[in-house]
Design goal:
homotrimer; 204 residues; mainly alpha; 8 helices; 75% helix; cell membrane (chains A, B, C); transmembrane helix (chains A, B, C)
Chain lengths: 204, 204, 204
């Protein structure tokens, strides 16, 4: 994968974690903890489930980028908040990239395509779930009905299908990531929502 | 172990996770996440603590059964809720089975009997703890005073004792599971409760 | 490391977990779960992040000490609560010891100094975070502005610097632990606080 792209995805996710820290009036330690786990928590979980040491503890960039994002949110959070609609586009790009990269890593370690798709989704959305659990909230992912996991699932599936067809490397990653990104953007634009169980109203 | 029994235990646990999702008005993604981690979260935790790759990411059944349970809860949750008293019997069977299987796996990997009992309990009750944490609630296990972990602890202890006596395989698993199951059913029937610290009233 | 010191640190942390269980009126199972994870949760997390089997599942003391702390809190929690100001001094000693030991273990497994510092902090404060998440609360660490992670960070940094200078073993552990301990005690004594993001008031 292109490490620069990877670090860009981590930066955007870390920024969203640090901002959640500001909103909850956490101190700078809390901001840094949320920034770090939002950014790399999905990848850490994926690696533990694959059974290898999490890459975040081998690569210094995975640590420095969340620290930089924390510093930016610490000093300029009002400006970053105002830029959030733009940040959501980068977040969608992060989802796309992370689901593709996560699926590829799971397949490279010999997991079944079904498990690889699960771990691709986990890479993309796991950090946000950890951020919410650490913030003392139910994970947004579980109830807010936005299509967030679903685009990741389709991007991961595309990646697994291309892998089975022996189409690998940058082209496969890019097209899967773009598919997930486009679906996420369309879901935001048109307000597509995940269904509730039959006969159930929305959250109280 | 008998894989069919194992999958039956996973099915019952997944159903209880998916139903909790319906009660909390989660969307279908949230239901599936709760179903999956309720069913296999205990085993995943056990495997991470043993230091091996979680079995749930090697076996396709561990993924398909929670998806099936989610689909059933999605369409027929009122009927499943009505059948819950019956489901609790299956849940007790799941506890029995999981504590026996979990203890055996830990012993097979050379852990001490004491640690194997801990991991047997963890296999049986860990999924429910993860379900509650993801739902934004304190784990029921910690406060509700029902004997839930205690039957698992006795079943796991039986398994470890039989193992030390060189009685292994299906007979040991079955008798340990039946012991935990019977204690859990008796605890439900007679309302046995775990003690609070000396001089403390119930939860406020 | 001196195992007796290590077990003393675990005992103090386990006591604080069991007491939180009493305050939340948990039953004895909940008390034991909080005691165990408060005491060894930081080390478990560190070991998973290093990619080795958690030491807590190899060493019987790591299991028996939390059980003993639970029993003490169960029968004598009013006395222990009254002794808490004294216990906080032991807690500070635990932080110092755990950050030094955790950093040393990460370095011994070949992690970079930066990651080793992160894992030293994680060893010292991770158990408290898990205790709070299991109790259904936001981790105190994230918002309460006490200098708790910061002394651990400085102790871990001292350990990593000494390691780079080839000063290892008991002398390095002791001096790093004493540094973190002293900073923690000074922070408590003078009410030093971690900063909030620029322009943000305290928690609502």
């Amino acid at each position: 994968m292109t490490p620069a792209l990877d670090l860009a995805g981590i930066f955007v996710f870390a920024l969203s974690g640090a901002l959640q820290g500001v909103r909850k009036r956490l101190d700078v330690v809390g901001m840094a903890v949320l920034a770090f786990f939002t950014a790399v928590g999905g990848g850490i979980t994926r690696d533990l489930f694959i059974g290898v040491q999490p890459a975040a503890f081998r690569d210094t960039g995975y640590l420095l980028v969340p620290i930089a994002a924390t510093a930016i949110a610490f000093f300029w959070h009002p400006q970053v908040e105002r830029a959030m609609p733009g940040v959501l586009v980068f977040d969608a790009a992060g989802i796309g990239l992370f689901c593709a990269v996560g699926t590829a890593k799971a397949l490279a370690y010999g997991l079944s395509p079904l498990h690889a798709v699960l771990l691709g989704v986990c890479t993309a959305v796991g950090g946000g779930v950890i951020r919410d659990v650490l913030s003392g909230e139910m994970p947004t992912l579980l109830y807010d009905r936005q299509l967030y996991a679903v685009p990741a699932m389709l991007g991961s599936t595309a990646m697994a299908v291309l892998y089975a067809l022996d189409i690998r490397g940058f082209a496969a990653t890019l097209s899967s990531a773009v598919l997930a990104f486009a679906l996420r953007i369309l879901a935001m634009r048109y307000g597509w929502r995940a269904p509730l169980a039959r006969g159930v109203g929305g959250p109280v």
